[in-house]
Design a protein that fits this description.
single chain; mainly beta; 4-stranded antiparallel beta sheet
Length: 89
């Protein structure tokens, strides 16, 4: 039987990053609107270190994501689509 020594792992995962995106929303009538949004997120690099009696290995990767959201909205109070200002259209 072979004995295996202890292994330790370290993860440095404090994330500070940035995001950029945009969207569009349009009136459908009768208080309804539809929207489409896109976001790109970049949280930088993730490093993981694994130490065993055989040696130490470090793994790196970038943390990014793409988000697309589609929505349907209803403005309570009926009428046109005024965005909450004035009496609507």
């Amino acid at each position: 039987m072979t004995s295996v020594g202890a292994a330790t792992a370290t993860v440095n995962d404090v994330k500070a990053g940035w995001t950029a995106g945009g969207g569009i929303e349009g009136a459908l009538g009768g208080g309804w609107s539809a929207k489409l949004e896109y976001l790109y997120i970049d949280l930088g690099k993730l490093e993981q270190t694994l130490s065993t009696p055989a040696g130490t290995e470090t793994f790196s990767s970038r943390v990014t994501d793409n988000i697309v959201r589609v929505g349907l909205n209803y403005r309570w109070g009926g009428g046109g689509y005024g965005g909450g200002y004035g009496g609507g259209y």
